[in-house]
Model the fold of this input.
Amino acid sequence: MPITFSNVFYTYNPKTPLENAALNGVDLTIEDGSFTAIVGRTGSGKSTMVQMINALLSPSQGEVVVNEFINAADKKKRTKKLYKVRGQVGLVFQFPEYQLFADTVEKDVAFAPKNFGLKEEEALEEAHKALREVGLDESFDKRSPFELSGGEKRRVAIAGILAFHPNILVVDEPTAGLDPRGAFQMMELFEKVHKAGTTVILVTHDMNIVLRYADRVLVVDNGKIVRSSDPETLFFEDIEKYSLETPLLYSFVKGLSKRGFPLDPGKIHDVDSLAAEIAAKKGDKR
Amino acid sequence: MKFSLGRYVPYDSLIHRIDPRAKLLAILFLMICIFFPYQSWAMTFAVDGAIFLLLVVLLYMTRTKIVDILRSLKSLWFMIIFLLLIYCLIPTTEPTFPLAFEVAAWNWRVYWDSFLQAAKILLRLMMMIELTMVLTSSTKPLDLTFALEWYMTPLKVIHFPAHEIAMIISIAIRFIPTLLEDTSRIMKSQESRGVSFSHGRISKRVVSLTSLIIPLFVSAFMRSDELANAMECRGYDPRGNRTRYRLLKAKWYDWVFLLFCAAVFGVLLWFSIDPRFNALLLFPAEVH
Ligand SMILES: Nc1ncnc2c1ncn2[C@@H]1O[C@H](COP(=O)(O)OP(=O)(O)O)[C@@H](O)[C@H]1O
Ligand SMILES: [Mg+2]
Done:
């Protein structure tokens, strides 16, 4: 079942001087099996939005439906034992490396599967599989998570979520602070998880990543969804007004168009298709 | 995060604008006033009532909400019962008022005095709480530590580490919201991993708690390390002479407020000492 937000509002610290309206009427649908990117400037409400998918926050108004779970502002409409939705939605917070606590890496990764009802051995088995998936070999299993490097810690934290096989994976700025290679590996991992049938929701500031991996992009501004489209269409428009940066590939195409070499943006997704388009164009002229 | 009591509330009232040094001293004056003894019941309640009215005005001026005040008094329920019990158990030797009830078999007599005593203490406790609230809800914690440091400065002559103490207090205060934020963030990430902090078996809850406390400690230590480095990089030396970015400067209304509170203090002190006033309106039975 898809994820839907209907007219969702959220206010932090309501009825105090620190009142802060973070979401102002969000409407959206995220299809099963899609790879959706959520973009927008800092403070626009992205993290608040994704925490509702996981029922960590409940709307002040409106409702969020995830699979068979209803997270509504109205307590009567809310599903009982709403927290069970967390077994289906894996949420990886920004800087997840700060959530590690166990004395060995494998125990930390096995923590979530155990909480969701697996037995000790099964959980450990899932933990080992998840660790291999994120690219950490057996030598890491028995080490303390606190002596790892920042990038490795983050991979352990992500393995800790993948280990219980959520059918929806939500990741909040997973590549922030990683080196380009680490970021690439991280994204390839999410791509693999997505290919295996998981719905992936990715919050990011990197438009190159959005263009490369996402099939749908939602632009959030000031607590509202201001655009919802496929990346190609969005990036060919003027997106500076949302504080978004045009991906490299598209600035290149736009630059070429300006200099009298127009290309059809709908056909360009990556370097290969760009090369093909240019070749085709040159062929025409000859 | 829930809005906690006594926390600084950023309004712009007259009370908010008063110099923290003047405010601290003035509130201290009022606080002492609350506990002056008087001989007659009539004077006790008349003066307490007057201070109470003054407090209401101050609370109104700081724009404290009624619900916040009521919430701050909620925990007093236990005190009420406890005080009543204590005062009923302590025998009154020279009662002013008639007998309230008696259990002849245990030779136990309770006079109305006991209830009045309990009421007096309760009223005074309540006023203490509200007075503290006036101070803390209208003064930024950092300003309060500035004020404390200012008052402690003369003690530097005897090598009292006034600046260090003030620095420690202000850092601690500065990091309370940060730690609360960390706590809520870590709780949320562990809840995403299937932890429930509110229900479950005891053994499970212990694990839940360690999954919160360990990351919290790790991040607190990391922060303190970073802070220490950052301070050293900027050449922090606790013994150094330093100027201040925000200079506190007393204005006329600081003096007015301070003098007013000092006057209240003076008058009430006089009332409490001078037998012509503190025994005003004595009940006949109060004359021994
Ligand atoms: N725990 C919180 N308490 C109060 N305000 C918050 C809290 N978390 C976020 N906010 C505020 O809500 C708004 C949206 O924040 P957030 O959802 O984190 O944005 P984003 O993830 O897009 O940067 C911001 O104005 C932020 O200051
Ligand atoms: Mg965010």
In short: Residues 247-286 of chain A form one domain.
